[in-house]
Design brief:
By secondary structure, the chain is α/β, with parallel strands linked by helices. The chain has two domains: 6-151, Creatine Amidinohydrolase, Chain A, domain 1, CATH 3.40.350; 156-380, Creatinase/methionine aminopeptidase superfamily (Creatine Amidinohydrolase, Alpha-Beta Complex). The chain has ten helices and 20 strands. β4, α3 and β5 form a beta-alpha-beta unit. The chain starts with 5 loop residues before the first strand and ends with a strand.
Length: 381
């Protein structure tokens, strides 16, 4: 079958194209991803995907508006006129519909065309959209993290892109380092780092870069401010890179040379120990809670349990926060080829904070740490 995009109309009497098994993003078998979805069809005739990252995952579409309707025998990609040409270029092996009505009307018309009576949908849709669909006489069934669970396991191309996003981020940071010195402003450092990321090829910044020094560093998600770096400051730097839509996420904490930094050195070394312990716990089949607990126990035994309140890690891919979730209150069975962060931290108000964040790829017998920047304490003169 030709993989050339096919534009169809809702009143087209021709049968929909069958699923395909070649081409697509980097040559992956799209059928392998659609098979995973179809295998989970229980009590539904079709599935509606509206999350733009899930749409990209399944089709390669790089635009910002559209939805997918998938049945056991058909794949429909729907977008608006703005993305007609881009859809023809990006989306292979799907019947493409250009919507001209309100989205709920288009979904209803497609459902009727395909004989869908019970429609599965992503539970993240807005209530307004759900309400509009409900009034069309379709029985709706919500699915939580339906495609996200598939996305958690990366294929070869995805792993290569994530590694490139790591490389770009680390290269940008290394070029910034000479400018991290006493007197430099947090917001200026952040701006320089983001400029470097774009020079390295990052088309987007995955999240607002965090540069937090001194007292600001005890706030895990502090925003860069006009504050200048001072002697004795802990400096938390949290940033990420991008490569063809895939992201990286990492954190390093530096310490400015000062006269009273013994306590800060102690905190740093505890966090480093927790980071290493968590990485050593990673292997296929392990519950994510076990990884989280391994880091948390190190910090707890050192007397800082109350100063570590967030999870130990999260998946990274098309989103900078996705499955799996490495935390104490969520069961996650770790699988080979998952990619996630390990980022224990200690945040003491009035003293400062330390976070050391790496990215790990799950291998058959452990983990490959993708981030290569040094983890040992670095004191900036």
């Amino acid at each position: 079958m030709s993989l050339k995009a096919k534009i169809v109309k809702l009143n087209d009497s021709n049968p929909p194209s069958p699923p395909f098994s070649k081409g697509g993003m980097g040559g992956f078998r799209v059928n392998s991803r659609l098979d995973g979805i179809r295998a989970s069809f229980k009590g539904i005739d079709g599935f509606l995907t509206t999350d733009i990252d899930n749409i990209r995952y399944l089709t390669g579409f790089r635009g910002s508006s559209g939805f997918l309707l998938i049945t056991k025998t058909a794949n429909f990609f729907v977008t608006d006129f703005r993305y007609k040409e881009q859809a023809e270029s990006d989306v292979k092996g799907w019947d493409i519909v250009i919507e001209k009505e309100k989205r709920a009307i288009t979904v209803s018309a497609l459902a009727k065309k395909l004989g869908i009576n019970r429609l599965g949908f992503e539970s993240s849709v807005s209530y307004g959209f759900f309400d509009a669909l409900s009034k069309k006489g379709i029985v709706l069934k919500p699915f939580k993290d339906f495609i996200e669970r598939l996305r958690a396991v990366k294929n070869k191309r995805e792993k290569l892109l994530i590694k490139e996003a790591v490389r770009r981020a680390e290269s940008a940071f290394l070029e910034l380092k000479p400018y991290i010195k006493r007197g430099a402003k947090e917001n200026r450092i952040a701006a320089m780092l983001e400029e470097n990321l774009k020079k390295k090829g990052c088309r987007s910044i995955p999240f607002d870069t965090i540069i937090a020094s001194g007292r600001n560093s005890s706030m895990p998600h502090a925003r860069p401010s006009e504050k200048r770096l001072n002697a004795g400051d802990l400096v938390v730097i949290d940033w990420g890179g991008e490569a063809e839509g895939y992201f990286s996420d990492m954190t390093r904490t530096l310490l400015m040379k000062g006269s009273d930094i013994g306590k800060k050195k102690e905190i740093y070394n505890i966090v480093l120990k927790a980071n290493r312990k968590a990485v050593s716990t990673i292997s296929p089949g392990v519950d994510g809670r076990e990884i989280d607990n391994s880091a948390r126990d190190v910090i707890k035994k050192a007397g800082y349990a109350e100063f570590f309140g967030h999870g130990t890690g999260h998946g990274v891919g098309l989103q900078v926060h996705e499955a799996p979730h490495i935390t104490w209150n969520r069961r996650e069975r770790i699988k080979e080829d998952m990619v996630f962060t390990i980022e224990p931290g200690i945040y003491v108000p009035g003293v400062g904070g330390v976070r050391i964040e790496d990215m790990a790829l799950v291998k058959p017998k452990g983990a490959e740490v993708l981030t290569r920047l040094p983890r040992g304490l670095e004191i900036i003169k």
